[in-house]
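Page 47, continued from p. 46.
Same chain as before, 491 aa.
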Amino acid sequence: MKKVLFKVLLPLLLCLTITACSTKAENNATEKGDAETVSPVEQAKDNTLEKNDTEASPVEPTQTPTEAEDNTNEENVVDVKALVEQAQALCDAEDYEAAIPLLKQAAEQGSPEAQNALGNCYGEGLGVEQSDEEAIKYYLLAAEQGYVGSRYNLGLTYLYGFGVEQDVEKAIGYLKPLADEGDAEAQCLLGDIFSDGEVVEQDYKKASEYYQLAADQGMAEAQFNLANRYSFGQGVEQNDEKALEYYSLAADQGYAPALSNLGYCYDNGLGVEIDYKKAAEYYQLAADLGHAVAQYNLGNDYFWGQGVEQNAEKAVENYNLAADQGYAPALAGLGYCYGNGIGVETDSDKMVEYYQLAIDQDNVIAEYNLGWCYEIGFGVEQDAEKALKYYQMAADQGYADAIFNIGLMYYEGNGVEKDYDKAIEYCSRAAELGHTTAIFLLGVCYQDGTGVEQDLEKAAEIYRQALEAGYEPDEGDQIRLEEVLGEEYIQ
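Result:
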């Protein structure tokens, strides 16, 4: 019977839903912020061009509506546009303080574009002291003129309680009409709201419907999120081919999470034939955009030599890129590499350091591996108490190997007092999770009457179960099998 040994166990990961919680007309940055920042005026300007057929007439605050109509002329319109253009140039140069007076002047003349831009500036503290109240004031002024960007931003404001009491009903009251009017960002955000189920009752079907509306308009983020719904069968019938289709649409726009998930699909034959080389190519494209999951998965490919020539140094390089973004699986991978001298010189201190950083994020692989290190004294002083501590952390997350190793420690009295009741308890839990060695050890207990009443029929039943589950017996195990199963096993 074989103990579960120290292992890297670096699974390929699928990137999950990324929600849109940015100010209206900002670039849809990936979860790691790899998109360029757009200035607040440019945000507003883009919205005006896309969402408003006509610009509101500039109105001086002191004028009555009638007076404003009488005084509106082409010169004033040009002046407002000129002010906004000057402010845009200053924002492009990141001179927000100089842009603010121009934006205020345009806003006072009724420019919804400038009002929304000021809302963004106050919301982000660009060129002015950050103030949610001022942001809301300017958003409301622009929203009263039907300005799409400000209506969206007010929806965000009430959704997350920025400077106001959170009011989900009011937030949806701003967002749903926009979505009904065909605004893709509002549709996508509503999809996120119903998908997350944090502020409303979770409804994957409704989320998928909103994602579909936005995806049909070519919005990459919505295409990606819709692909995830098809991948997991949430709100729609599970369909790997459909998932692949929408990942591809988003990937064609250079959307990093979709490129990463396309790599995952080719790695695992989801909706397409397995093609490790193509998987690595997609991971590389996403990794080049700074996507941590892709960097990690590409590191795995170099680690194992799957789809690329095996290269430990390249593996470490990509793990480092993802780890620099705080990505826990990559931190655990670096811990393993430093512990075993793979792609780097062996360094036990760095091994523990990286494992601990990953453990701080509840990474189960790091918990298990560090527990194993303390159990046998690998790179650290042997410490059964610490081994149990880290194994238990992994076991609490349902990690079968850790659960089994705790059971085996109690069974053998390895660093702890023998306790067959606890051994059977933990081995039974691991066995329920399909752990073949745990299943076999339970058979041993029934064969020997260890912690349970001896029952050879029960032992035979469990041994058969272990073999059917793929357990590979060593020489000592084979003797036990012959004793209990006799001719049945020999044949």
